[in-house]
Amino acid sequence: MAFPSYVKTIFYSIAMILALVFSLLGPAMGQLIVGFYSSTCPNAEEIVSSVVQEAVQEDPTMAAALLRLHYHDCFVQGCDGSILIDGSDAERQASNHAGVRGFEVIERAKAQIEDVCAGVVSCADIVVLAARDAIALSNGPQYQVPTGRRDGQRSNVSDADTMPDSGDSIQLLKAKFGEKGLSEKDLVLLTGAHTIGTTACFFLERRLYDFQPGGGSDPTINPQLLPELKSQCPQNGDVNVRLGLDRGSDQTFDVQILHNIRDGFGVLESDAKLYTNESTRQIIDSYSGFPSSTFGPFFERDFIDSIVRMGQIGVKTGLNGEIRRVCSAFN
Ligand code: HEM
Ligand SMILES: *[C@@H]1O[C@H](CO)[C@@H](O)[C@H](O)[C@H]1NC(C)=O
Ligand SMILES: *[C@@H]1O[C@H](CO)[C@@H](O)[C@H](O)[C@H]1NC(C)=O
């Protein structure tokens, strides 16, 4: 039994109208979309870009700091700005967040945005956009990132206990990423964020001088790298001295970090461990030599997929959460 064609036309029209209604309501109903603020605060992304650009010009180490801030925000309570809250018991005080920086850059962007469209743009989204801009300023890939996150209303120092640690086993690193909906491939690619930035000697103490089992140094450190690390971070020396995470390329966002990890030049223990496990090693190797060098897979391109996925962890949307007036305090 066939429908007359005018009935089909009516069905078709209803379907089109429903599709339109849902595409307009969708963001309000809870998922993220690229350009969420394009009508409510059209300059939001541009303001973030210009504030980040200025900050990085003034202090080139700020690009890496903003990228790390995004990761630390997303891994605790989701990407909801919980790390931005200031206070004695607030999440920011957690030892697992030690050295996380860039709060004043986020706050500066927020203030400028509030001047033109008050109460519209979340701090959670500003963190995500700032990381995106920081990557581009480091010669990394440029990409569009979905927005529409709202700010969380909880920030508790104990929530950061479950952050990945540079001394974690490979199983534990995989499990901690898995809990956030991220795969082994995401673990490798996102660790590739260590293509820019530095670490304090603090995080190398154990790896250089008390590696278990047996004490001494981690045997997976390339013999050429070991004396370099030891001279930069002498035993019982100043743990605040900083060195590049991506030897020879710590200002440029590129695949070198994965090649360094492959060759035993990874600086952090957790980075090096990715090459000790068969499955993560295969992922690292897939970004080396042919065909990767010519036909892909390309680190920069795949990194975008992973960081966009990381940006979706535990997001609050629609009527959840709030839009803070200032990023360091709840309304
Ligand atoms: C696999 C789990 C991870 C561990 C154990 C880890 C650990 C660390 C450590 C110990 C540092 C040095 C911190 C300091 O001394 O200030 C660091 C720096 C950094 N991390 Fe990670 N990280 C991980 C994943 C990530 C992810 C997923 C990202 C981003 C997508 C990221 C981005 C960065 C950046 C950019 C820096 C340099 C910060 C700066 O120069 O100020 N990390 N990480
Ligand atoms: C933080 O969380 C812990 C453990 O859930 C709880 O005991 C404590 O009261 C919380 N602190 C604040 C200020 O909410
Ligand atoms: C390493 O990877 C393999 C997959 O090849 C997996 O089955 C194994 O459990 C992993 N080992 C560790 C220690 O995580």
Brief overview:
The chain is mainly alpha-helical and 331 residues long.
Number of helices: 14
- CATH superfamily assignment of the largest domain? Peroxidase, domain 2
Distance from first to last alpha carbon = 60 Å
Uncertain regions: pLDDT < 50 for 5+ in a row?
none
Number of structural domains: 2
Please provide the count of β strands: 4
Task: Please write the CATH class name of the largest domain.
Answer: Mainly Alpha
Largest sheet: 2 strands, antiparallel
- Secondary-structure-based class equals mainly alpha
Task: Tell me the overall shape.
Answer: globular
Domain Plant heme peroxidase family profile: 31-331
Family: Belongs to the peroxidase family. Ascorbate peroxidase subfamily. Belongs to the peroxidase family. Classical plant (class III) peroxidase subfamily.
Catalytic activity: 2 a phenolic donor + H2O2 = 2 a phenolic radical donor + 2 H2O
EC number: 1.11.1.7
Summary tags:
two-stranded antiparallel ribbon; 45% helix; binds 2-acetamido-2-deoxy-beta-D-glucopyranose; two-stranded antiparallel sheet; Peroxidase, domain 1; Peroxidase, domain 2; mainly alpha; 331 residues; iron
Structure commentary:
This is Peroxidase. Ca(2+) 2 binds at residues 195, 246, 254. The record marks 68 as: Transition state stabilizer. It is a single chain. The protein is built from 14 helices and four strands. It has 331 residues and is mostly helical. The protein is 45% helix and 3% strand. It folds into two domains: 44-162, Peroxidase, domain 1 (Orthogonal Bundle), CATH 1.10.520.10; 170-310, Peroxidase, domain 2 (Orthogonal Bundle). Helix 3 crosses helix 5 (123-137). A two-stranded antiparallel ribbon has the order 1-2. A two-stranded antiparallel sheet has the order 3-4. The site of protoporphyrin IX containing FE has 24 residues, from helix 3, helix 7 and strand 3.
